[in-house]
Amino acid sequence: MKIDSVDIAQTSSAASIICEALKKAIVEGRLKDGEPLRQDEIARMFNTSRIPVREALTMLEQQGLVATQRYKGAVVAGISPDEAAEIWDFRALVEGHVIEVAVPRMTAGTLAEAQAHLAAFAAAAGPMEWGDWNRRFHMVLYRASGLTYHLGIIEKTLDRVDRYIRAQLSLSNGLARADAEHRAILDACAAGDAGQAGALTRQHILGAKANLLANLRAD
Amino acid sequence: MKIDSVDIAQTSSAASIICEALKKAIVEGRLKDGEPLRQDEIARMFNTSRIPVREALTMLEQQGLVATQRYKGAVVAGISPDEAAEIWDFRALVEGHVIEVAVPRMTAGTLAEAQAHLAAFAAAAGPMEWGDWNRRFHMVLYRASGLTYHLGIIEKTLDRVDRYIRAQLSLSNGLARADAEHRAILDACAAGDAGQAGALTRQHILGAKANLLANLRAD
DNA sequence: ATACTGAATATCGGATACAATAATCAAGCG
DNA sequence: CGCTTGATTATTGTATCCGATATTCAGTAT
Questions:
Q1: Across A5-9, A141-145, B133-137, least confident range
Q2: CATH number of B81-218
Q3: What is the C-alpha separation between B21 and A11, in angstroms, rounded?
Q4: Where are the domains of chain A?
Q5: Which residues of chain A are within 8 Å of residue B59 when distances are taken between CB atoms?
Q6: At what angle do helices A148-170 and A14-27 cross, to 10 degrees?
């Protein structure tokens, strides 16, 4: 076999492509809470029938990103202050644990990558990029844990709340504060102090929770 | 309005009915790991077309209960020893935390209900019932926490592994040991000792993990 | 006998068409 | 004028049909 081979496997169906596109729009906050998602309209956007659209919406509903009512359609699922408070507590619990497992397994490459994401975060120009680099920074550290199941749950949870995190980063001091805390977390990781990394991560998340709730209440 | 009104709302579509039925069969272990799920076969069973079947399968895939390959179909998703180990650690983390939150919020009714489930558990006759009452016992205690998001994650995780728990309960000493540990947990709850309840729950889960891994390795 | 080739079958992904339900709106009645 | 009632429209849920892909198996050549 002397020719170069390309993996031609179509691993992605129309449904999953549509799902990913919608998910991205929701996570980035381009689709607002409660905004209805019409099957016909989406089908026309992607030049497909409604069948794959319906499967995409089914996936998103399972992920908690949209809420569907029979014969009434799907809307972007919002989040109540109570839910928000609980989800941030959950994040502190799980992400705090995962980073403690991760620290002793981090390589020089892990730390370098996290450092690079931190620099990109500081240099980024708008809420979209801030959110992206923020998330990448944390996930690189978590991924060193090798805890696949935990990581999947974390990703799902972040998908659910990423747009609120982006909004918080945009507020006054949000960016500077996050940056300082990120550096402290990374220092603890570099020092191999798992307990400290866990404690700082929990503080980071619970501090964000307090800010978020204060702002949600302001509305 | 003087007549009795019945909620005639059809909250359940064909897809969700099929999904629940398949989920029950998988969770109870009646469908074995790797067993293929043919669309038209299932469609015939429920007297529907394949469309709602496909939506049910996408739901189950999102929940991690089936694995789908494009143009090849869906099979019941098994679990590797590594995944099992990680999932039990996750359970210890989350369920341990949730019960600590729950203890101070438990009412006399909560404890009575848990007690009743314990009795039913001891009186039950086979692996199916053991599994059901075991799960109900734990969930009643967790539910007192009021932590909706955490509870949802716990339910999803238990769906994923319930058949393995059932299998473990059927093994020698599995039942007696679980019963003794359940009583200890309930006692701690009744005494209002959240820390103790959390510690016992974690032991309960991590002990089960050790048993499970020993048995998985024996194969 | 074995390995390759190609047709036949089984199964899945998607498009079109129809049925069921909800939302809108106009007409009639008090 | 407000409320109800019925028809119209919009949207969703499901069935049927068609094209795409994978699998199986018979046939053939080496």
A1: A5-9
A2: 1.20.120.530
A3: 28
A4: 14-76, 81-218
A5: 58, 62
A6: 40
